[in-house]
Records
---
Amino acid sequence: MNTENLIALLVAAPLLGAAVLLCGGRRLDRVGHWLGTLLAAVSFVIGLVLFTDMLGKGTEERSLHQHLFSWIPVEGFQADVAFQLDQLSMTFVLLISGVGTLIHLYSIGYMEHDERRRRFFGYLNLFLAAMLLLVLADNYLLLYVGWEGVGLASYLLIGFWQHKPSAATAAKKAFLVNRVGDMGLSIAIMLMFTTFGTFAFKPVLEATAETSEGKLTAIGLMLLLAACGKSAQVPLQSWLGDAMEGPTPVSALIHAATMVTAGVYLIVRSGAIFNGAPDAQLAVTVVGAVTLLFGAIVGCAKDDIKKALAGSTMSQIGYMILAAGLGPIGYVFAIMHLVTHGFFKAGLFLGAGSVMHGMNDEVDMRKYGGLRKYMPVTFVTFGLGYLAIIGFPGLSGFFSKDKIIEAAFAKGGTEGWILGSVALLGAAITAYYMTRVMLLTFFGEKRWEPDAQGNAPHPHESPKSMTIPMILLAVGSVFAGGFFSIGDRFMHWLEPVTHHDHGDSPLSAATVTGATMVVLVIGVSLAWAQYGRRPVPSVAPRGSLVTRAARRDLLQDDFNHVVLVRGGEHLTRSLVYVDHTLVDGVVNGTAASVGGLSGRLRKLQNGYARSYAVSMFGGAAVLIVATLLMRAV
Amino acid sequence: MSFPLLTATAALPAVGAIATAAVPAARRTAAKWLALFFSLATLVLAVVVLVRFDPDGDRYQLTESRAWISDFGVRYELGVDGIGVALIALTALLIPFIILAGWHDADPLETKSSRWRPTQGFFALILAVEAMVIISFEATDVFLFYIFFEAMLIPMYFLIGGFGDRAHAGSDEKASAQRSYAAVKFLLYNLVGGLIMLAAVIGLYVVAGNFSLQEIAEARANGSLDMATNTERLLFLGFFFAFAVKAPLWPLHTWLPNAMGEATAPVAVLITAVVDKVGTFAMLRFCLQLFPEASKWATPVILVLALISIIYGALLAVGQRDIKRLVAYASISHFGFIILGIFAMTSQGQSGATLYMVNHGLSTAALMLVAGFLISRRGSRLIADYGGVQKVAPVLAGTFLVGGLATLSLPGLAPFVSEFLVLVGAFARYPAVGIIATLGIVLAALYTLVLYQRTMTGPVKPEVSAMPDLRVRELVVVAPLIALLIGLGVYPKPLSELVNPAVKHTMSDVQKKDPKPEVEAAK
């Protein structure tokens, strides 16, 4: 059997799970979660088989292709359902199905008391299928199906507890903001179609050499818009914080490890387009740099543990986008950071979920404190994730983030200096806000408060089904970076797809690492001075103007509300009025002036059957007269 | 002579209408089953048409031709191309669902004694509309088409005016007055359109000397029938106006929200998913074929009107408080897409527009019929009267969501395929138009998801807390529609292969070629 025939099964297994779980009804309530987890694991195992097979082949023969059927055949327009599995897709397949399976497992315990658990697993399986489709598609239109498919799954899962108005609103917001990004993807595909006559990866990316820079820039910018939506980058970042309304495993899987990194995938996959469009690349790096600071600042101000982590996610993806904008200097490191981030951020979210699980679903870190004694496994795994994300030497984040900072400097020129400095500054803020989260949650005094029903929290360690995934992810957080970096393994693995260029760094690698260590220490010490040395007030102090703005996501939501929501409401309301009076009135009025119809219209409203009969008769009479007239002709 | 399959497909529902109307007053249930039987039998015939039709064969197939009013060259001429076949199949498919969904809509009210037989009348009228719509898709004689294009107003008028939505905020009298207003408005708008078209039909006869679409189109193509530029433009406008009222195109759209709001949900589906399609179908068949030069002349204005329809319809949908009016405005937006696809004059645009007609029929039917089930449970059309339905009726909410996702053209569902083709087709020739139309996809998500959020999520409103979930009859209506939406979203190839050759013919009628991709053009 040819191994490429297995590719479709990667998508089919979780898709089957989604169909069965969502249509299956109550009978499946008792086994649904196991079925969902099993099918996620099946995908992972198939992924491993394909991976082993790929490793056994020479670098040039690793890319597999599977054509299933012709999807939309129209004159001049050919869209196929076909898959492409190369090293880049493979990396994602393993990350998605691996982390996905762990999070399915975790959810068995986390969602145990939810009466709609079967449906939850159905949605999770749907997400896996869509995400795998996204990274396996061999053309942009099929990628689009996965792209919106993950958006749908995200919508359903953010709004999973939809009896809460806040959850329903957050879900809608996420979908809408993403749709703005999707417009970008639509237009990019249309541009490809008119430029290349196709939107399949291979022919498009091979034809970029013969295309004008203007066209490539336009396509690149549209792809960037799409990436901004899905990956919560400025200016389309506003949905991610609200998305934390979803159950925590969802935040871990979709809004930290996988879906939100789809924008990075899109840009790296379209590398040939961006390589030919320096202006678009510059835009990408600017978006990445702005977002990495934006997210980090927001992360510093949030007291809600999940929202603090969401700010952090935004910021870390900013790093990846920045790296992807650097071109061949950064592609490999964007993906490497994406993978290590997948481990430690998913682990951090699962840890946060475990804490919430033990604290009556409290999310305010000011009401935690001193939890390390009560939840040792959570403490240790979360702590390792923390060390990984701040870039503690030897752990995963150290290798992957450091490389991005180096690459940013290696861009060269003033740009290189600016981007590199921003990346360094971001590292300092990361160390600050993550230390803050750590101290508020696990150290210091207990600041626990009873919940709304008056139940005092009794923090306890979570069940095995939850701690095992946390432990496995912690292992990844510790070792993945080192493993990838020894002998530049990860670089050699991806290079055939993304290509690599060392760039021209004004600073030596050792200097950059040294600087990173310095800012790390500064960030940690500042946080310790503020939250470790002194008792933490359980109600947030008013704070400076910047703090207050940061708590409100730097006022971007307020801006959206005033300009888009309010403005939109006024617009639609006035249009409803215009339609009712003006358009209707003018059209009726024109008709009236032609044939006095308005008066008749009013008369006909009286509801007498007789008038209807008259009007019908009138219509028929017109027909007869017309026929007679024609005889005359 | 071979069996007149097309005549039979149109005649069968007509016979069914008469038979249903003739059922005695007391046997209401029998009348319903009879109507359902005839609609299903028509579906069988439509499937036979579909199977017998060879997409790669002649342009018009299964043709029939008989002399009719020989004095002035009116013939009974039928024939179908791929577009006609697809729309006949859509019509025949939707009518059984409309009948099933409206099963109790015409049950006599206990409080009122009625002298006539409303139940029999309701179902007979639906079948009568079906017969006329099908023959409109088949007619290749302009006069024959015109007669049924106009005649279908009569049963539609009675369906809207006589069988209104019982979920009405006002008193019975007020409801009745609004219903009459909606019905009369529908009638007058369409009659005016029809009258103008009639003048154009007569004018065409004066110029061409007969009514045969094929003969005239052929004569136009080979140059033996020359029309003065102004004559062609006037005739085009006469035809187009009638079709734009029916379609409906901004600013001639205002009858639709009234009609769809006041009619019962199944009748609203009949209006927007079936009857209105005759308008867009006729643009493709008559306007482009008979008046190719005038069509190209009018294209810029029509594209602008279509764009306005797309954006304006969607914005108005966002502002609605009434569920059914919201769906009506969404339809106006979607008709804008269809007309945009037709007049973009590219293969992708026109194939997309044709698929759009079919897919819009399916998605609107799914959304509107479920909305009807919802409304019948609570007795209100106002969005604000609902909340938290998902908790008490999850299957209803789930199907409503799928209908909504189809309406916002989610990839993987059928409407995405057609909407993307229309966008690409428009973009290829007019990039700015394509980009503006793309805004429609954001607005569609807005009105759909806001509707879903306000009705289905949040805390359960006391008034909906005892709401039953979908019944078996209702599931039988919705499940196949959803299956088709998914099926045609994943595998639209059979449908697109059916319409592609027809689109090729139309493209050569208007002598337009697709723009070449830049890279290829440069070589």
---
Amino acid sequence: MSELAASKPETTEDNNNDNDSLTPSTFLKTVLGRPVTVHLSSSSRYTGILSCLDGYMNIAMEQTEEYEGGQLKAKYGDVFIRGNNVMYIATEKKIK
Amino acid sequence: MSTKVMPLELIDKCIGSRLWVIMKNSKELCGTLRGFDDYVNMVLDDVTEYTMVDGVKEKTKLEQILLNGNNIAVLVPGGDPEA
Amino acid sequence: MSSISAPLDLIRLSLDERVYVKCRSSRELRGKLHAYDQHLNMVLSDVEETVERVEVDEETDEVIVKKESRSVDMLFVRGDVVILVSPPLRTT
């Protein structure tokens, strides 16, 4: 399982143009509490408010709706999604 | 005068420009690369997602995503699946 | 969810409560959560397991979704098959 460098200082050489790049770890800090859509590799997707996440991309969400093939399948008050299933996290509005 | 380019250096040069991402599971994404980390998890802007549904390519637009590096197969700098 | 600072806190708060677990290969579990670890290996009791099978009728080509359920007193779930965990009683 890949671990995001969420809490690590960004010292690696691939982050050296730090002026205008938005690294995964900064993205994670800015999306907390926002409405997001989480797409799993199994092609189901979850929309809700992002409560918190960790370096494994494990996710806790609130007011979550589950969609499969565009159809609403279920609603969850709170939900935990195991990070290895996550393909991407999309925000509704752009973060600058 | 051999100029070796490390794989991640190449990706670093792509920051700010369009990048075509081919996933292991026949999905493809194209977006502007905002940043990435050692695992090649990436933040992409103005993304178009291409999914094969019954042999037909479906397009989805996404404003901004954090893409898990786990399922990435191929990265094409500047590429566009429609071109 | 104010007391949550990490996703696994949500699981910790669900200890001794009934939870819903969505697993790979269309498997769902509902049971009381006794223990878990950082891999999300879990011990559940009074479990109802539901497996969804999609079959195609050979004569009519109809797609039939079959749900099979069974009860298990206590079981161990290996973390890597877990997709999602939710406390079902708080489900809207």
